[in-house]
Design goal:
alpha/beta; globular
Length: 152
């Protein structure tokens, strides 16, 4: 699928949430190809989910998670530093879907690109809960990219 369907002057900023997975990498690569065609800036966002009860109270563990996510985002930004499209990164705390949508709104994001890893066991694509929530509540179009399978 060619990125030209999204590559027009209206796309100036693209958000790619990442967790370091192959699916997130596939989403980032698709976002970069769209950004190259439209001169857009790519925002890489990692979210530290602190909404589950044990994490709400373990400050030291959450701090370690945040440092790890910060390292991940810094590595991604550095890896694409010489790329034609501008790449910037951020780390936030909160419920992932809510943080993604909020970030998109705060930064006037034009397109969100998410990676998808799951399958329901047969052939039907399966969207994770965060992807479902983002696609339902995002203020902008959402492109869901399957993880590269390595062989079509």
């Amino acid at each position: 699928m060619a990125p030209t369907a999204y590559a027009d002057d209206a796309v100036e900023s693209i958000l790619v949430p990442t967790d370091g997975s192959d699916a997130a990498t596939a989403a980032l690569e698709r976002a970069l190809s769209i950004a190259d065609a439209s001169d857009a800036v790519v925002h890489v966002l990692a979210v530290v989910d602190v909404t589950t009860a044990p994490l709400e109270f373990d400050v030291e563990f959450v701090d370690r998670l945040e440092r790890a996510k910060t390292g991940l985002v810094e590595d991604v930004v550095a890896a694409y530093e010489g790329h034609e499209a501008g790449v910037t990164g951020d780390v936030r705390r909160g419920r992932p879907a809510r943080v993604i949508v909020q970030y998109a709104d705060e930064h006037d994001i034009d397109l969100i690109v998410l990676g998808r890893t799951g399958r329901d066991g047969l052939t039907k694509p399966f969207l994770g809960s965060t992807t479902r929530r983002v696609t339902r509540s995002a203020p902008v179009p959402v492109l869901v990219v399957p993880a590269s399978s390595g062989g079509d």
